[in-house]
Amino acid sequence: MPTTIHTAPGRRLVFGTRGSLLARTQTDHVRALLAARMPDWELPTELIRTEGDELQTVTRPEVVWPHLGIGVFTRQLEDALAQGVIDVAVHSLKDLPTRCPDGLVLAAIPRRAVCWDLLVFADDPGPVEGWARREWIVGTSSIRREAFLKRHYPHWRTLPIRGNVDTRLSKLKGGVCAALCLAAAGLERLGWWSPSQPSQLDTPNGRFFVRPFGNEDGLLPAPGQGALAIQMRAEDARVPILHELLNDPVTAAAIAAERACLEALGGGCRVPIGAWGRPASSPHRLALDGMVLSPDGQHCIDAGTTGALTDPGLLGQAVGQRLIEQGARILLGEAGA
Asked: Of the four, 2, 22, 41, 225, which is 20 to 30 A from 291 by CA?
């Protein structure tokens, strides 16, 4: 790979992206935001294949699971960024480790999309009141979502399903499972789902039925879920420009609190931890709720408080410490964290 490092301001920024439809859509979203403010800039894209992409085609779980750890969908993008192959990497923030590699920084975090999860059905599931009598198989590769479903719907079974969003929906359509648990943000960015019509999902492969899951259901999002991370080389002089144009301060503060909580717990992206940061009712305050589930769903601990909007890291550490005092590390030990 070439190792040219661009340190001077310029009007050409090479964006790196994974090849999936969602990854390209998210990168194009950020490029469009920047192009609207800097119409004379050249913003080409470079496709980067990650370890996570390579594993999508492996069918044996015993081969896949040991590799699905922190950075599996981001490491090759970060390598390309550090080596000067690309100038900007756009990530789903929940996939990023809590600390950037040396020489790289988060230049901006744009405004967050919907951060909740959706239960997606190929057929109309009927009223929620009747779900207790159903014996469904639900596809998910998220330990957090699996633990939640085991806790609230112990009669359901979960099935690990990997692949890009469109691949998973094709498997659902094909009858591999009765439902999928997916993040709302990706489906919203693809233009397939909208909070204004939360019960339906319209895709190129047809219409699906949807039931959102959120805080009122007892499921907090993964730390950083629904947010995008714009990563650059720390020495690139254009970092302040992208920060000024693209960073949303409230979203960035909420994400910082969630990731500080995650770091305090010593967890990664494959542990049953939920965290939700948002503006508090009082001015200049940030609220944060956190939760930790046991893998079997039998136990759940939660904590929440508010803190200064200007110090989200301290707020995240405080919530993480409250969870630890209630036994979070015991539950995370059960999850292999």
From this structure: 22
100-138 pLDDT, tens digit per residue, is 899 999 999 999 999 999 999 999 999 888 887 889 999
d(C-alpha 182, C-alpha 163), whole Å: 12
Same topology, domains 15-110+227-247 and 117-217? Answer is yes
Q: What count of other Cβ atoms lies within 10 Å of the Cβ of residue 206?
A: 10
Active site residues: 94-95, 144-145, 162, 168, 269
Locate 97 and state its tokens: 């480790």
Task: Mean pLDDT check: name the lowest of 29-38, 53-62, 226-235, 261-270.
Answer: 53-62
Instruction: Write the CATH number of the domain with boundaries 15-110+227-247.
Output: 3.40.190.10
DSSP of 105-162, one letter per residue?
EEEE--------EEEEESS----GGGGGG---EEE---HHHHHHHHHH-TTSEEE---
Q: What class does CATH assign to 256-334? A: alpha beta
* Calpha distance 71→312 (Å, rounded): 23
* Residues forming beta bridges with residue 91, ordered by sequence position: 229
Query: In this structure, are residues 140 and 149 in contact, taking their beta carbons and an 8 Å threshold?
Result: yes
How many C-beta atoms surround the C-beta of residue 283 within 10 A?
Answer: 7
pTM of the predicted protein model? 0.88
pLDDT of residue 233: 97
Say which CATH superfamily domain 117-217 falls into: Periplasmic binding protein-like II (3.40.190.10)
Taking the CA atoms of the chain, what radius of gyration do you get in angstroms?
A: 20
Distance CA 164, CA 112 (A): 21
Domain residue spans of the chain: 15-110+227-247, 117-217, 256-334
